[in-house]
Amino acid sequence: xxxxxxECRSCRREFDVAELLWRCPCGGLFDVxxxxxxxxxxxxxxxxxxxxxxxxxQTPIIESRSLPGVRFKLEFLSPTLSxxxxxxxxxxxxxxxxxxxxxVVDSSGNAGTAAAAYFARAGIDCEVLVPASTSPEKLAQIRxxxxxxxxxxxxxxxxxAAAARIAERPGVFYASHVYHPYxxxxxxxxxxEIWEQNGGxxxxxxxxxxxxxxxxxxxxxAFSELVNAGLAxxxxxxxxxQAAGCAPLAAxxxxxxxxxxxxxxxxxxxxxxxxxxQLLAAVQACGxxxxxxxxxxxxxxxxxxxxxxxxxxxxxxxxxxxxATAASRPGRSGQRLxxxxxxxxxxxxxxxxxxxxxxx
Length: 360
Ligand SMILES: [Zn+2]
Description:
Elements: E1 6-8, E2 14-15, E3 30-32, E4 61-63, E5 70-73, H1 85-97, E6 102-106, H2 110-122, E7 125-131, H3 136-144, E8 148-152, H4 156-167, E9 172-174, H5 181-187, H6 189-197, E10 205-209, H7 214-228, E11 237-243, H8 248-254, H9 276-285, E12 289-293, H10 295-307, H11 318-324, H12 331-341, E13 346-349
Parallel strand pairs: 5-13, 6-7, 6-9, 7-8, 10-11, 10-13, 11-12
Antiparallel strand pairs: 1-2, 1-3, 4-5
The structure holds zinc ion (ZN).
């Protein structure tokens, strides 16, 4: 299988994936080439066969006890205990295919953990940069896989900037879950599995936690590919959920000013997501909405999930928290959320395991 090229979203120039560029010389972000045609329904419709596998994917889907009509997809049962494994397997496989010896990633924790594991599996050196505030359990996971762990003081954006500087060195592969478009195509297996587990039908709505938006883009890719292939009638509405303390996309959606305060949802505390425009367009195109939940609701949601047997990290409880508080939400987005939840056909991902961040 040939490796699909990268195509700039701005100027449409294409680049061989082995050139190790992480964005276009014009400054634009990459998609997988529009010349490449995934084949839904045949083999896995991803740009590279996931050879460096750790058994990721095919996570169970179960009904919620506390929220009628809602099902949970148990992404925290992935090899490194988060859904990021779905993307990491493709980047590590790609790196092995093109003979890369050294990779760098930045992360708020889970993407770095996934990269550390999959690059270890591929026998490729990996440096992981995370904010110094990242939970100690995630740091322990990254170290255990043998990655070089660098703690960056400052924000998540500072970690990203430091990684991008390292990625400029010759021969270094920037295995970014934000910039490398193969990652979202790995994550889209989440959306395909929902379709399969739902008897070849898409649900009416899916909720996703959103920081950099990899799961949102993965869902959007999967659902649009299925609709375009005639395998589903219509896109589900994608409801993006942000933590109130860091909600730039919700602010843009509602045309209000973004504010910043601490949040327990460390995995989605992204102040300036590079793909913001793409995320907003995706939510718009499928009739979705963007809502926020505050830390009190997240902590309460996490506790409620644990009481129905499901122990997740705080970030992984934001969608549950949004659904659980839907009845009392003000405004148009609250009404939209209630309308969609009324369909009795809603899927919520539980993205990361509770032991990654046992406190709070
Ligand atoms: Zn360009």
